[in-house]
Design a protein that fits this description.
The protein has one helix spanning about 10-30; strands spanning about 35-50, 60-65, 65-80, 85-105, 110-135, 135-160, 160-165, 175-190, 190-200, 205-210, 225-240. By secondary structure, the protein is mainly β. Mean pLDDT is about 80; it is low at about 1-35.
Length: about 240
Amino acid sequence: MTTLTRRTFASRWSLVLCAVVALGALSKSAVWAGDRYALEFSIGPVWASHWSPREKPPGTEVLVDWRSGLCLSLSGTARLARFATAELGLTYAEKGAQHTVRARSFPFGDMLLTYDFRYIELPATVRTYWVRFGSARLYTYGGAYVGLALGNSYNFYNAEKGSATRKLDEVQQGDVGFVSGFGWEVKIGRFSLLAKYRYSMGFVDLTLDTDPVYIPEFRGVDFPVIELRNFTHAFLVGVRWTMR
């Protein structure tokens, strides 16, 4: 897959505009005339990490840990059939990872690398309702997303040499991937309370420079450039408003 760059997106505002237009089309189009449509808002914690499609350098061990963050989601839904509903959303997601790196060539012990990313994402999914208990319904969903990075930071820490934090200027600004999960909702009049689990996996190789350039002892040392991909687990709660 071709790696996305900033040129793939005209601007962050064009992504937001596309989301607004699409949400409006989803709720107003004559295609959905007579079908029920709704707006949903949800919020919750996200646990993010990275995985690498590349082999580790010889003599290098990498222990991957999670980064916790926040996920906010606003979406519009339209019923396609009795048991199927289309959903188009606008999501803010905090991603990243913590890596403990041990390298035989590094004389000062373990390195703790922390990556933080913030994305605006546009997921498009289809949910299928499977089980109904009175006013409660269980469903699964799946689809794809495109995302644009709002910002990032990289932190290097070593017990002997200290820490350094900087922005990753050359990292890819766009991401695409798939999203899936399951949810539960309880209808109360025109409103529904909802809870759902969300899993996402990115397909774009993020090229990350691990050089701690702000620590004088490491200037001129050739640190590796690594390629990683996003994946996250999120648990969201929210409310759904049936508009029609």
